[in-house]
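User: I'm curious whether this sequence folds into something compact or stays loose and floppy. Could you predict its structure so I can see for myself?
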Amino acid sequence: MRLFHPFLIALQFLTRFPVHLPVIPDARLVGRSLLYYPLVGLVLGLVLAALNWTLGNAPGLLRAALLLAAWVLLTGALHLDGLADSADAWVGGLGDRERTLAIMKDPCCGPAAVVTLVVVLLVKFSALVQLASARNWAALVLAPVLGRIALQALFLTTPYVRPGGLGANLAQYFPRRNCAIVMLVSLIVIPLVAGSHGFWMILAVTGTMLLLRSMMIRRIGGMTGDTAGALVTLTEVTALMTAALLQP
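Assistant: Here's the prediction. I'll summarize afterward.
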């Protein structure tokens, strides 16, 4: 049963599913939970695909709105919060590392955060309109998975720069070799299941991840929990947008 504890920790942290942890998680268990992030993404994606199927012949705009609302509710807007904090910090930090890090800790939401959230959610909604109407279940399932694979890649390649931050235990204790294996297997399986659309989604998400990582390195020398959340949100949107553009 202990083998499932890291998965339950990941599920509790990344979603609002009612999860009861049979143990008090220590730092090592929290670190191991990163290994199961793509599996949590798969659970989210399957729930979204099932919701889209349940909505049947509902109008496309309404279906997309309900899918977006469910996506936000199921994740507790966790990664949207990271995106908002990162947007404020990047604009208000004026290129300065310490100022950028300080703004990210401020719980207040500034104009840059509001505008960024509106634009990103609008793009996500627009992609969902196209994908939900076409019953493209594969894209709905894969987007949350790819967002969390991108997060694993970020932890594997990028130093964590905020001591004691939310992701400090993840960065210190996650199983690097096993995470790399999970990523590699996932990236091989996805195109086999989803075909060429899956390949292009992977390519687009990889490009987005590398771009965002380079921005983090240049500005703050690494990553924080907020920039990790921003990465998940933006790679999910990239995956959805790519699938929508490929939709006939």
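Summary: DSSP finds eleven helices and no strands in the chain. Residues 176-220 form the longest helix (45 residues).
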